[in-house]
Amino acid sequence: MREFFMAGGRKLSYLDFGGPGRPLIALHGHYNEAAAFASLAGVLAPRWRVLALDQRGHGESDRAPRYERDDYIGDVDAFHQHLGVGPVAVLGHSLGGVNAYQFAARHPDKVSKLIVEDIGAVVDCDWSFTTRLPSPAPSREALITALGAAAPYLECSFRQRSQGWGFSFGIDDTVASQKALNGDHWGDWTAVSCPTLLIRGTRSDELADDHARDMVARRDGQARLVELAAGHVVHHDAPEQFADAVTTFLSDPC
């Protein structure tokens, strides 16, 4: 079910996949939106109730004048307050992964467990792919053809507008967000105090093996690494294995 709430004078959207389970906040990456977690939500139910946010500038949430780190973290905090829940598990992919661990570091009383999918403590994002995105296209089929192998990863964000087919995110907004994501975030990563699962795709072009292992080592036994045969979007490339890893971690009493 799609729901809305206000944060900082802007409307933010989220999907509540429902059920009686414990809440889990899910944060998508660039080019995606809350719907990207539909498959995972179905697997985690009924033990877990996935609540996936359309982050600022994505999905049905309003565009924003800024996409800085503190802006995203403020949105996650507003989402948590809107839900009226206590400490919750938080999962994030890529952009959402940095947002998730920064939120956990700065609000340790609000996060019980953390799952970070394929993003590092140091981010060096290349936005050239964003500026090459074909939009608008005359038809959905034309957009899929133009995107080629990338189409399945962006499909949940396809939108038909008056001028043709494009995306639920803005190109300029995404470039601004990617630029703001870049940097050294070791301070936040090492400040996280809750149990953490880091999931890496073995074919990832975003998170290198040695960096992932360094991230786990610097958390002094509070983090574990799972590597799956996948690219950067692990939950898409290896959905069953990803869901198994998440379920096992969430079921662990520690």
Secondary structure tally, helices: 11
Strand content: 15-25%
- Structural class determined from secondary elements: alpha/beta
Give the overall shape, derived from the CA principal axes.
globular
The arrangement of helices and strands along the chain is: EEEHEHEHEEHHHEEHEHEHEHH
Number of DSSP strand runs: 12
- What is the strand arrangement across the widest sheet? 1-2-4-3-5-6-11-12
Distance between the termini: 31 Å
- Low-confidence parts lasting 5 or more residues at pLDDT below 50? none
Q: Please summarize the sheet with the most strands.
A: 8 strands, mixed
Return the average pLDDT rounded to an integer.
97
Range of helix content: 25-40%
Radius of gyration from the alpha-carbon trace, in angstroms: 17 Å
Architecture overview:
- The chain is built from 11 helices and 12 strands.
- The chain has helices at 38-44, 69-83, 95-106, 128-131, 140-147, 151-154, 171-181, 186-191, 209-217, 234-237, 239-251; strands at 2-7, 10-16, 22-27, 48-54, 88-93, 111-117, 122-123, 158-161, 164-167, 183-184, 196-201, 223-228.
- The strands form 3 sheets. It has an 8-stranded mixed sheet, with helices on both faces. Strands 7-10 form a two-stranded antiparallel ribbon. Strands 8-9 form a two-stranded antiparallel ribbon.
- α2 packs across α3 (95-106).
- The longest helix is centred in the N-terminal third of the chain and has 15 residues, at 69-83.
- The radius of gyration is 17 Å and the shape is globular.
- The two termini are 31 Å apart.
- The mean pLDDT is 97.
